[in-house]
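Researcher: Please predict.
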Amino acid sequence: MSHVFHINLMIARTIERKTATKFQSIVLYTVLYFVFTAISNVLTNGITNELIQLLITLLTTYLLTGMIYVILIEWKDW
């Protein structure tokens, strides 16, 4: 399963190296996800192209499921 969420694992490992505890890593990862989601929603707010909206939705869903995977599976010993 880890090969599916390769991007999420790279982000998680980078965050884990930069923070002191798992709790700080989880909080920072969650905040980064919400910031990215908010920015992508603001940038694509006026776009009426269905394909672009679908791609942004798929990307944010992929990042959300990857974040859940990292927190529950990879960082389960926190």
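Model: The two ends are 20 Å apart (CA to CA).
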